[in-house]
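step=predict obj=histidine kinase n=679
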Amino acid sequence: MKPSKRDLIFPLAVFALFIAIVFILWNNSLNTQKSNYVGEIQNTGSLRAKEFFSLVKYNIKSLENLKHRIEMTNGSYFDYWEKDAGLILEQNPSFRFVEWLDSSMIIQKITPLDGNRAAVGLDLTKHPRYPEWRNHVLDSSTNISSWTELHQGGTAFLVDAPVYFDGAFRGSVTAGMDFTAPFNELVADLDKFAIQVQDEKGTIFYSKNNPRTSEIGNEFIFTTTFEVDALDGQKWTFSLMPSHLNFLAERKESTYIYLAFGLLLSLLTSSLIYFYRSSRKKNKYLRDANVKLKDLNTSLKKEQLRAEKASRSKTEFISNMSHEIRTPLNAIIGFIEVLKLSEIQSSLQEYLSLMDISSKKLLLLVNDILEIDKIESGKTTFREDIFSPLGELRNIIRIYRRTAEEKGLYINLDQTGQSQIEVVGDIGKYGQIITNILRNSLKFTEKGGITISYKETIVDNDLSIAITIKDSGIGIPNDKLKTIFDRFTQVEVGKAKRHEGSGLGLYITYKLVELLEGKIDVTSQESVGTEFHLSLKFPISETSNSTTSTAKELIDLSGCNVLIVDDNRVNVMVLKKTLENLGVHSDSATNGLEAIEAVKKNDYHLVFMDIHMPKMDGLRATQEIRKFNDTIGIIGLSADVTKEAIDEAKGVGMNDYFTKPISFEKLRKHLPSYLIKIS
C-alpha cells in the first residue's frame, strides 16, 4: 500500500531535526577534542620540561660536589682526582670529560685523556668565553657557556665551578656536557610528540622526533624557558609539539564514525516512527496472531507434558522389562552354574556349555539395551575407582585368551614399558570399552589373531593412554566405515550373515568414550583386518589401591547362616544350592514380614533381600530391620539395574546391591567380606 503524504511529513520532520542536532554535536565534539589535545600538549610539555631541567641541575650539582670536596680538603682531594672524575663520568652519561683549569685559565688536567689530549696545556685567556669565566670567578658562582665548539673536536656545554681554599682562588673544575643521551632516556616512550631545546643564542642542541615548529600552529606548541645562569642571564628554551602534521586525524576519525552513527540513528529513528504509525493500523491483525500464538504455546506445553510422561513410561517399561527378563534368566543361569559344579554325564556337558553361552548372550543383549537407555537419558554415572589401566587391560586379555585359543587365534599385547601407574576413574566403564572392542574383533576374526598395543604418557598430573586393537578379520567395507559406531549397525546384513550381534556394542563404546572425553576411531580393509584406535586420559591417583585379599585356600565359610528373602521359589532354590557349594547354610522367607520375624528369632550373618515382594517389599523390610539391628549385613537382590534403584536400596540401609542373575564366581568373590572366618 502506497504511503500517504500525511504519513511521511512527521517522520521527515523528525529526521531533519535529528540531523541538525547531530551536526551541532559533531561540531562541538571537534572543538572539544581540539581543546583537549591542546591541554594534553600543555600538561605533557610542563611535566617533561621539569624533568629536563631537573636533570640539568642534577648534573651540574655533581660537578659542584667535586668542587666542594676539593675545597673542604684544602686541595688534598686532588690526589683522588682521577678516581672521582672517572666515577662522575661513569654515573652521568651527560659528562664528556672533566678538567682542571688553574687560576690563570690554563688546562692542567683532563679526564679521560684519550680523545682530549689536545686540550691539555691550552691557555684560555684569549678564548671568547674568558670574560664570562672571569666574572663568575669574581662572583664565585658556577658558569655555563653557550653550545660551544671544542678545541679537541665536537661541541658541548662548558660548565665551570670556581674553587677557593686557603682564602684564595685556585682554579676551576670544568666539565664538557652533552645532554643528548639522558634526554633520550627521558623521552623514550614519547613517540607522538616532538621536542627541541635551544640555548640563549637560539642554537638547537637537542631535538627528538623531527620537530617542525614553522609548520604547526602556535596553539599546538608548548614553550617554556629555564634560567641556567643567573649572572649572565642565560635561558634555555624548551618546546614540545605533535610529532606529525596530521596529529588530529586519528581523533577526527572517531568523530566521523560518531557522525555516521548519528546519521544512521536519525534515519532509523525516523523510519521507526514511520513504521510505528503505519503499524497501528495493523494492531488488530497482531492481536489475533498473538491469541493464536498463545493457543499454540498451550498446545506445545501439552505436547511437552505428554512427551515427559512418555519418557517416564519408557523408563518404567525398561525397568519392568529388566526385572521380568532377568528374573527367569537368574534361574536359568543359576541352575547352569549349579549343574556345572555337579557331576554330570560328559555327553551332556556340551549341551550345558551351549546353554551357558546362549543365556549369557541374552544377558549381554539386555545389558546393552539398559546401557543405551542410561546413556541417552543422561543418567550414566561414573565411579571413582583406583586402578591400573595396564593391569586391567591384562586381566581382560587373560579372560578372552581362552576364547581366542578355542578359535585357533592368538591375542598378543605389545606394551611400552612395564608401568603400573594407578589412576582415578571408573574401572567398569574402562573395562566395558575395551571388552566391547575385543569381543567385536574376536567375533569377526577367523584366522590369525589380535594384536593389542598399549602406550601411556604422563601429561601434568594426568595419565594419557593410547590403545590400538588390530585384528586380521573380515574387515569393514568403506561404505559402512563411517556408520560403524551408529546404533544397530552391523557389517553383515540380510539372511545370509554369519556373525550374530545386536549392533549395540560399538555404539555404546563410542558413547562411553565420548562421555569420558576421549577419542576413538577405526581404520579397516576388507579381507585384511580392522584397527581400532582408542585414547583416554585419567587423573593419576595420589594414593595406591594396594588392597590384599585372603587366599582362597584360607577361606572357610562353613557354619555361617544366611537368610534368603525372595517370593520366587526358583530363585530361592538356585541361591540355596549355590550357597551349599560354598559351605554356607541358608534359610528362606517369602516376603518382608517373614524376614523381620526370622531376623529377630535367629542369629544370621547375612540377609539376601529381594526388592519386589508381596505384603512387604525388601526396601520397607530393610528399614524395619535397621530399627533393631544395625550390624547384620543386608544385600539387595533385584533384576532392576537402574541407578535410581541402586541408590534407593543403599539409602534405606542395604550394605550392597546385587543385580540378577548372580553367578557363582560373584558370590565367591564378595561373600568373604561379610562371612569370612580365617581357619
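step=describe
The longest strand covers residues 155-165.
step=end
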